[in-house]
Structure formats: structure tokens, C-alpha cells
Amino acid sequence: MYKIEKTDFGIKLTFSGYIPVDEMIKWRDESIEFLKQFKKKYCIIVDMRELKPLVKDAEEILKDGQKYYRQDDNPKEGIERSAVLVKSVVTKIQMARISRETGLNKVERFFAEEDFNWKKKADDWIYKAIDSDE
Fold first, then answer.
1. In this predicted structure, what is the pLDDT of residue 113?
2. What is the mean pLDDT of residues 52-70?
3. What angle do CA 14, 18, 22 make, to 5 degrees?
4. CATH of domain 2-128
5. CA–CA gap between residue 9 and residue 1 (Å, rounded)
6. Which range among 6-10, 12-16, 80-84, 90-94 shows the weakest confidence by mean pLDDT?
7. Cβ neighbours of residue 75 under 8 Å, at least 6 residues apart?
8. Neighbour count for residue 9 (Cβ, 10 Å)
9. pTM for the complete prediction?
10. DSSP helix/strand/coil, 78
11. Rounded-to-integer distance, Cα 54 and Cα 70, Å
12. pLDDT(72) > 90
């Protein structure tokens, strides 16, 4: 399952459970339409705490969808900062690899639910550009 929401900081994406390829395609296509309302930089929180590891084909669709969020063709639009919330080490490893492969690692930080300060650190990154890993 996925959910796309507009927020005061930009966008919140939620991914949970097992997401098959056809649902990931639906997310990508819905995202393309949703992003048309953003004409400037924005921040994004991606809640993947309940996501099961993606199969390779769904992972490829996720990567393809990320390019629409990045807005590489327009430096005045797209992701300014991204906070990814994870629970599973497997999910964190998979998403960190995808982040490197798609170039989002420059603006994306991962926050594990097991860290008791994860919520504050994620909010600090999104709202204040404070990187707790520095």
C-alpha cells in the first residue's frame, strides 16, 4: 500500500506491506500527476517503517518514480531534503543503495525507528536542515 499527501513542508509518502509491481506503477503514475502542483523546492518524508523488501521489478519502478520527485531538469524544483523513516535493517540497506544509485543520497537521510531520537532528528533535517550524522 502507498499514500501520497501534501503537507506544510511539502510531501509525505507512506509505503507499507508488500508492494507488487502493478501497485508501484500506479504510485509512479499518481506521483507524476501529484507533483504538477509543486513549482518550487520542497521537503519530503518517506515513511517506510512498515514496508516489506521490494522485488527487483518494483524497485526499478521506484527508481524511475524518484526521478520525477528529483526534477533533475529544473534546479528550482524538486526535493530540497528527504527524510526516510525505516524500521527494518534490510529495508534501510535496500533504500540506501537505491538512494545512491538515483543520486538522492545528497539530499536524503535515513532515520531508524530504533533510535529513540529518530522523530526529532527527522524533523530537524526537514525543517531546519540539521544533519544529525555530521
1. 84
2. 91
3. 90
4. 3.30.750.24
5. 23
6. 90-94
7. none
8. 16
9. 0.89
10. strand
11. 21
12. no
